[in-house]
Amino acid sequence: MLEGMSTEIRESELEAYLDEALPAEEMAAIERVLRADRSLIGRLSTIHARRNAGVHSVGEIWRGHRLSCPTKEQLGSFLLQALSEKTADYIAFHLEVVGCRFCLANMADLKARQKEDREIIKQRRRKYFQSSAGYLRRRK
Asked: Per the confidence metrics, is the pTM higher than 0.85?
């Protein structure tokens, strides 16, 4: 997409822009063009008006309901490497190639929780050891 060239921006990209479903760099590039190009604002307004009128394409429905996105449970299983190779390959493609922002955010959340869980487990083990160590010493 060339800056200043609204004709270079496809309708599907504008729809994804409205859904905030593009990578951050592409969102920023479209926004820069929007600020300078009134015709692009008109195209975006037309898409927005069509959506508000209840007219939706199959693509819009697909993106809106995130039909290609794995569930959070599947993402968790992916993180634990507990999926079939085929499913894991699809999720890797969805995250790495498609770059789905929603799934990347879910994955970041799951990784943060996993890290927190590890810390909680470490603390719990330490407490168990500390409380048991004195008991074990007395028995000897």
From this structure: no
